[in-house]
Automatic annotation (TrEMBL):
This is Aminoglycoside phosphotransferase family protein. Pfam families: APH. Residues 94-265 form the Aminoglycoside phosphotransferase domain. The lineage of its organism: Bacteria, Pseudomonadati, Spirochaetota, Spirochaetia, Spirochaetales. It comes from the Bacteria. PANTHER family: AMINOGLYCOSIDE PHOSPHOTRANSFERASE DOMAIN-CONTAINING PROTEIN-RELATED (PTHR21064), SLR1880 PROTEIN (PTHR21064:SF5).
Length: 371
């Protein structure tokens, strides 16, 4: 047994409806919000793996509601894939393993919420994309995911984090953090704050588009960073969109935005050397070309015109959120070291600057899409 395993998980696992003999469990994953473990069971001679997650209730105020959403979405997708004649469906969408009492979560004595999924085997993830072919396929799977969810006919989905991508609210939170400055960090990040406030106005385009109904509201993923997509280890093709905690109403541009933010960056989200952070135009073209091949049937002209802008916009909102957390003393995102949030924010700002430098060709590419 791995000694790094936290004892709490050993109390939690037996509540889930898993047959066979428990073999081992260890921490896994690198999400910024939930804590994840992987367990192994011996089921009559076959080793089967599960993932267990503690849902961060500081972030998700109503974990049972999150699980209801996930159940509705994964059941819908399973049906969809079945109707499309696809095989290997338990690798194409997540499978929730309920508790013995039928609940989709277990609440431990400390009040923490836990959930379990089948672990999707033989897959890999990327922090930085390696080539244009991967980018094109990544764009396609997110376009397809949105296409699938456009026909969603299950129970109404809850807003698991209200106003999640509302730039106006995110700036209000930044202002508040700045006025309190609980860690006296504001003085050391003047350039970053100046940049974000100077660009506040242009950041409002998506949230205002939703308010004025110039942008349609549909069901979107809202957290399409590239490591939330599992790629098949053998074929290298994207297979499964995971991290469904924030699947809820939004504009498709929230998803293209996060995809652009993470797929076109030549460096990782928390690269300390910002000179390594560049917006990679060939990757952008491949990504959006792939996305557009799936999305052209449902994208309005206005949505299409904002495809590139969505990348800049979601990168900006992440910078605002990361800097806010830095000022608040790192209460939201998991951090590995004290400067982690400001390092992340600087990377986002460097990426926006690199996009700005290449904006003419980016715009020209978007204008020429489909022509
Ligand atoms: C968080 O859970 P994870 O690590 O996929 C965050 C996203 C940010 C992302 C930045 C619920 O995502 O909004 O884009 O970190 N999720 C939540 O890496 O806040
Ligand atoms: Mg997440």
């Amino acid at each position: 047994m791995d000694t790094t395993v936290h004892n709490e998980i050993l109390e939690v696992i037996p509540h889930f409806a898993i047959y066979g003999d428990f073999v081992s469990c260890k921490p896994m994953g690198n999400g910024h919000i939930n804590s994840t473990y992987c367990s192994v069971f011996n089921q009559a001679g076959t080793q089967v793996r599960y993932t267990h997650q503690r849902i961060n209730k500081n972030v998700f105020k109503n974990p049972p509601q999150v699980m209801d959403n996930i159940k509705s979405v994964t059941e819908f997708l399973r049906k969809y894939f079945k109707n499309a004649g696809l095989d290997d469906i338990s690798r194409r969408t997540l499978t929730v393993v309920p508790c013995w009492d039928g609940k989709l979560y277990y609440q431990d004595a400390a009040g923490e919420y836990w959930r379990t999924y089948l672990l999707v085997e033989n897959v890999k993830t990327y922090e930085v994309l390696e080539n244009e072919d991967l980018a094109r396929q990544l764009g396609q799977i997110i376009g397809a995911f949105q296409n699938q969810l456009a026909t969603y006919d299950g129970p109404r989905l809850a807003d698991t984090i209200p106003r999640f991508h509302d730039m106006g609210m995110r700036y209000e939170q930044l202002e508040e953090a700045l006025s309190k400055d609980v860690k006296n960090r504001a003085a050391g990040i003047k350039d970053e704050l100046d940049f974000l406030f100077a660009n506040k106005e242009r950041g409002m385009v998506l949230v205002e588009g939703l308010k004025s109904k110039k942008l349609k509201e549909g069901i979107t993923h809202n957290d399409t960073k590239i490591n939330n997509i599992l790629f098949d280890e053998k074929t290298s093709s994207p297979l499964c969109v995971i991290d469904l905690d924030t699947v809820m109403p939004g504009t498709v541009l929230f998803d293209t935005g996060d995809l652009i933010r993470t797929a076109t960056n030549t460096a990782e989200e928390d690269e300390k050397d910002t000179s390594k952070v560049q917006f990679n135009f060939p990757l952008f073209k491949a990504l959006i070309g792939g996305y557009y091949s799936e999305a052209k049937g449902f994208l309005s002209d206005y949505e299409k015109s904002l495809l590139a802008e969505s990348g800049r916009n979601i990168t900006q909102i992440m910078a605002v959120r990361m800097i806010t957390d830095y000022l608040n003393g790192d209460v939201y995102y998991h951090i590995d070291y004290p400067e982690h949030n400001i390092v992340r924010a600087r990377t986002q700002i460097a990426l926006i600057k690199s996009m700005d430098e290449q904006w003419d060709k980016v715009k020209a590419f978007i204008d020429g899409l489909g022509k």
